[in-house]
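Long-time lurker. I teach an intro course on protein structure, and each term I like to show students one example going from raw sequence to a predicted 3D structure in C-alpha cell notation. This year I'd like something fresh instead of my usual example. Would anyone be willing to generate the C-alpha cells for the chain below so I can use it in lecture? Attribution to the forum is fine with me.
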Amino acid sequence: MRKCEVVRSIVRQTGVETRDVELIVEAFISTVKKEVGNGKRIEIRGFGVFQPKKRKAKAGRDIARNIPVHVPERVEPSFKPSKQYFTVKTL
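-- Reply from a regular --
Happy to contribute to a lecture. Here you go:
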C-alpha cells in the first residue's frame, strides 16, 4: 500500500478533507524520521516501535568488479510490529 492509498483510506473512514489528511500523514512521517534519526525510539502501543538499530561493520563484495569492499558500521531505522496488533484470534 502506498502513501496516497493510505490517505484515501483515511479520508473514506473519517470524512476529513484530503489535503488535511495529507498534511497529517506527512507530519507524522517527518516526525518519525527526525526523531529516529536523532537516536530516539517511538512506541505506538498496539501498533509497534520505530527505533534506530546499530549495524556492525562487515566485509561485502562489489559484484560488478568482483572485489571485496568494507561496509562501515551504521545506524538504520527499524520497525518492530506489536505482538498485540498481529495476534490472530481463533474461535
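Some talking points for your students: The longest strand covers residues 48-55. Residues 3-81 form a domain with the HU Protein; Chain A fold (CATH 4.10.520.10).
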